[in-house]
Amino acid sequence: MASDEIKNMCIEFINSEFRDFRGRWVRDDLFQPGWLEQFLARWDLQIEYPLETTTLTDLLALRLLLRRMIETIAEPPLASEDLTTLNAILLKPSFKRQLVVEQEALRLETLPEKKDWAWVQTEIAASFVHILTAHEPARLKICANPYCRGIFYDESKSRTRRYCSIDKCANLWKVRNFRARARQQNADKA
Q: Which pTM was predicted?
């Protein structure tokens, strides 16, 4: 997976609970009309079953699980109950395999038996596992802006990136810190 694809399916899914970087409001995109359809289309997940209330509850639980695992990733090992839950999600659908000829090369393709919501959850969970196994899980970070708390993959060489976006969260806290230092200097002079 290319490094620009690290901002992948599971990160977009987790960030579907979007917080204003100034702390004014929270928007849950899972409840926004059309967001799930756009998400499924972007990640080429053609679904054959409508969304039900229980499915939405499962999606919310998956998002909470993945966020919790990211929050504890810096302090291994991961909680065994979280791993058990994640593995249960990964085992939900059954798959079949077929050999495909693509541009004169052979490739093994894995297809779900049913393209249902269990399969979608498995694909989201698998993209998270891909980051854990094929990349550096410690680079999965939570924005240091306490109002935002967005998830991002730190691709900086120094691995010291603290904010999800330079133009919003990082800039906001730079300005706030600058103003606090200026107020402190003025108070010290008085």
A: 0.82
